[in-house]
Amino acid sequence: MKAFILAAGLGSRFGEITNDKPKALVQLNGQALLGRLINYLKGQGFDHFLVNIHHHGQMVVDYLKNNKNFDVHIEISDERSELLDTGGAILKAHEFFKGNDPVLIHNVDIISEVNLKKMLSYHINNNTLATLCVRKRDTDRSLVFDDKMVLKGWKNKKTDEYKWVDAPLSNYLSLAYSGIYFADPGFPDQLTLTGKFSIIDGWLTLAMPDQIKGYMDNSEKWFDVGTREKLQIAETYLKS
Q: How far apart are CA 50 and CA 237, in angstroms?
């Protein structure tokens, strides 16, 4: 199975920690985020990886080489000349998606216990182009779904800003995106935006808008460890 790890971010929320290293190599309980995620996904049956790089990208390349690619097949999507954001990264990596099987896309700074095999089965059984892992948690920015869990929009609670796929809804589910999704091989070809863009904007303007659904994750553990404070919370939880 294939997994695309989004690891090219600047890691600016970490402050000075990422002045001399990429976010992917920030340590969580003595282990780099990237290595921890690869080992976790290996345990879930993934054996073919793509990792995108930008900030201190050569350090990621060297890290993987020094760890013998964790005994799996790993390719690099090099964004050192231009950071393409989460949507542009998919377009650049379109060749990686080719084949017959869905691809997992996973942010490098997400720690979770989501059952990926169950999520993949949900994705396949619903015959969707993309399946987004979502949770009920407090957040200023969330995705909007109808009662069939079809993606219909995005909202910013703090500014009361909305973006809709088509007509606005009066009754909807507001759920937080978890930084994990499955996409079919044809997904990059359905994106209508080009260049550098957020994948959320890509989802909302997709050529096949009714082909994106949400998957509810109710597992106990989920962490976005993209800041020093959140990293410390995760470290304390995992140690206990």
A: 29
Written as one letter, the residue type at 227 is T
* Both structure tokens of 225: 């460890």
Range of the domain at 132: 2-239
Tokens standing for residue 160:
């009361």
User: How many independent structural domains does the chain possess?
Assistant: 1
Query: Rounded distance, CA 177 to CA 215, Å?
Result: 10
Query: Quick one: pLDDT at residue 33?
Result: 96
pLDDT tens, residue by residue, 68-122: 999 999 999 999 999 999 999 999 999 999 999 999 999 999 999 999 999 999 9
| Pairing verdict, β 130-135 and 173-183 | antiparallel
Q: H helices of the chain, where? A: 33-43, 57-66, 85-92, 94-97, 116-126, 187-190, 199-204, 228-239
Strand 27-28 relative to strand 2-6, pairing: unpaired
Q: 29 with 37: CB under 8 angstroms? A: no
Query: Which CATH number is 86's domain given?
Result: 3.90.550.10
Decide: 36 and 25 in contact? Cβ < 8 Å.
Answer: no
Distance between first and last Cα of the chain: 32
Global confidence as pTM: 0.95
